[in-house]
């Protein structure tokens, strides 16, 4: 795994945006896997800037989001569809019909089929070229809470207490946070051809160390990224504070600069 430790949030966002930029330039009809949460906001701002100032063209790009609260309609201001429209899609020349976010308003009886269809759409698009990920305080990627099978696919999931508490900051109270979500599975995520994993802040330090250097376990679903051949983890100094191999990561990052190649 490439582990890059950046000085601040700006730098993390720019580093991540550079990887997306190169992919979109190389493959204008690429498929991006996208995440919500506060961590990727800087990346999205950079992409909007690259579109507006450098003409980075998203007209043939397709996107699939990781997850959506179950029970919220796409118009709900706390829905992830709304978040993506506001924070990214509106600022790009992407076609809205090429942006996929799971629909949290699908009827319960139709969910299984809907989730299977979401997976099929990813396959039909040629698979995800680059997946953006954050990490939850409980080690989740997408809404794959502790105990989620590492073989899981897109499905309805129940949210962990920790996640409800973490996400209550966006709602009037924790009672208003939905208890369920539709989420890509761990196995769905691992099929992406490349992954960018972003984490910031001291609160994430311990869980980041477990995810990147601890045993692979369904109790920290982000640890499954260790099984993927092409992950770049981009962290700020606070989030990297509990890692045991920081000196090595810095050495490898320096070596990359000299070699002009990426070392996974
Ligand atoms: P955050 O959320 O970026 O707001 O910290 C991350 C997550 O829950 O995956």
Catalogue the unreliable spans.
Answer: none
State the total count of DSSP E strands: 10
Radius of gyration: 18 Å
Bound molecules: 2-phosphoglycolic acid
**How many strands, which pairing sense, and closed or not: the largest β-sheet?**
7 strands, parallel
Class per helix and strand makeup: alpha/beta
Q: Give average pLDDT, whole number.
A: 98
Which overall shape is indicated by the principal axes computed on the Cα atoms? globular
Listing every helix as H and every strand as E from the N terminus to the C terminus, the arrangement reads EHEHEEHEHEEHEHEHEH
N→C terminal distance: 5 Å
User: How many DSSP H or I helices?
Assistant: 8
Q: What is the helix content?
A: 25-40%
Strand fraction band?
15-25%
